[in-house]
Amino acid sequence: xxxxxxxxxxxxxxxxxxxxxxxxxxxxxxxxxxxxxxxxxxxxxxxxxxxxxxxxxxxxxxxxxxxxxxxxxxxxxxxxxxxxxxxxxxxxxxxxxxxxxxxxxxxxxxxxxxxxxxxxxxxxxxxxxxxxxxxxxxxxxxxxxxxxxxxxxxxxxxxxxxxxxxxxxxxxxxxxxxxxxxxxxxxxxxxxxxxxxxxxxxxxxxxxxxxxxxxxxxxxxxxxxxxxxxxxxxxxxxxxxxxxxxxxxxxxxxxxx
Length: 257
Hints:
The protein is of the alpha/beta class. It has one domain (about 10-255): 3-Layer(aba) Sandwich (Rossmann fold), CATH 3.40.50. It has helices at about 35-40, 65-80, 90-100, 120-140, 140-145, 160-170, 175-185, 190-195, 215-220, 240, 245-255; strands spanning about 10-15, 20, 45-50, 85-90, 105-115, 200-205, 225-230. The radius of gyration is 16 Å and the shape is globular. The two termini are about 25 Å apart. About 50% of the residues are buried.
């Protein structure tokens, strides 16, 4: 059990072993709309809104990924789930790895999708600061306008970009600002990743410029029990760009439990 105060709102599909899908920044659980139901054909899939996003936007926003991880544990408590497989995309991966460090007995498998184990570099921390200034002065829409070109593969389908844009610009300033601070200040958890003895998976879009293929391949190669799947025709958001390929990669991994 966790001492966290908050239980997160969530969507739930299917029955069986639980897979918890943790969304990316600056989105909410709706980003999984083309992934969750197909995955739920063989398992129970839970997609929460992290505090500060989506239906959790009215809750006080955490200032650390550790707090987000404890919120996930509290939510699993409410669902009477002792152990789950975690899938985290980008920021969701940072939180999933923090969960694995803080609640190791509750993780059956861990998949990092277009994410990393390391902390922000000085340049990345500077970028977070600039992003916070944009949000404070111009709003979330302005932030996303600058971020969007780096999220997708060349010539993305409008249906993918339109979906993710609509989710992003609906987020509130407080949640976005708090998440930027949490990502900036998160610790390096490479040692946590290397110490895991559970099955692990890295998934990355071929055209991801934020977490490049080589970085995820190296992370998988260094894991105790890991592999890397590269999704063609996708950048940082395969959940929107290539959901069928992402479902196939996750389904095969989760079946291996």
